[in-house]
Design a protein that fits this description.
Bound molecules: S-adenosylmethionine
Oligomer: single chain
CATH topology of the largest domain: Rossmann fold
Radius of gyration: 18 Å
Length: 259
């Protein structure tokens, strides 16, 4: 594996324990439905979940008949995904878990019909590396295949650049978050601190890059993709593919690889 990166400290127990109760099966199923629709997935379709985490989208998609590969860097998250897959037999589909780095995907060109990356997971590096990550997703998709990327909404953050929240988790842990939108760099810096009931503290800062429409157009052109639509979770769930305004909670970019 490559050199240590902030994601290693952030995407361990700190992240998953502090969001697990928010990422309900219902929410994950709604999001998986959006992925399925926008990527036009069919039973038997080969789909890659880039940075799949604990498999909350890969599993429902496999249950709908897709042949899903979930790739992530975290051994622990992948172990959780595999355990969940064993607990819930997947009718018709299949889920395979691969430990790897999204900067250099361990798959041949055109191995998948589609690829997606949800929850601000693809763009966690500098711009040149982020572009390489998108190019990697494009490379492993067949000609005419689709790529979907979801991340935060820069237009919304421009309106409200600073945010903070604190809450108590079901096990009594306390989680505090503070985020600050750096408009010049298009980066949201999110500091998260988790205090366990026994006083143990986990803390780290994430740096998540969110792209504007014009930046997406450039990214797509340089990676051999066409930006087919820029929408949001509520927009896509309601059938609208028109560009998200400042009210949208996120951005969902749908891209197509030329035939
Ligand atoms: C915010 S979580 C999202 C997980 C999942 N997509 C979801 O929606 O629940 C980000 C994920 O990216 C993974 N990740 C971070 N850097 C990575 C890298 N370089 N290669 C592969 N996965 C990575 C983390 O381990 C984590 O599972």
């Amino acid at each position: 594996m490559s050199a240590p990166h902030w994601t290693d400290a952030y995407y361990g127990a700190l992240y998953l324990d502090s969001v697990a109760d928010l990422l309900t099966p219902r929410l994950s199923a709604i999001e998986a439905g959006i992925v399925e629709t926008l990527l036009a997935l069919r039973p038997g379709g080969r789909v890659l979940d880039v940075a799949c985490g604990h498999g909350r989208h890969a599993l429902p998609l496999a249950a709908r008949g897709c042949a899903v590969v979930g790739l992530d860097r975290s051994r622990d998250y992948l172990a959780r995904a595999a355990a969940a897959a064993r607990a819930e037999p997947l009718s018709g589909g299949a889920a395979t878990w691969v430990r790897g780095d999204l900067r250099s995907l361990p798959f041949p060109d055109g191995a998948f019909d589609a690829a997606f990356s949800w929850y601000s997971s693809l763009f966690v590096f500098d711009d040149a590396t982020n572009e390489r990550c998108l190019a990697e997703a494009a490379r492993v998709v067949r000609r005419g295949g689709r790529v979907l990327v979801q991340h935060g909404n820069p237009l919304q953050l421009a309106v409200e650049p600073e945010a903070s929240a604190a809450r108590t988790l079901p096990d009594g842990s306390r989680v505090e978050e503070r985020s600050s939108w750096d408009m010049a760099q298009g980066v949201d810096r999110c500091h998260r601190r988790l205090v366990r009931p026994d006083g143990a503290v986990l803390a780290a800062t994430a740096e998540l890059r969110y792209y504007s429409r014009s930046e997406w157009e450039g990214l797509a052109a340089r990676t051999g993709l066409r930006l087919a639509a820029l929408t949001s979770t509520p927009g896509a769930a309601g059938g609208s593919l028109s560009g998200p305004g400042p009210e949208a909670p996120d951005v969902v970019a749908l891209l197509e690889k030329s035939t």
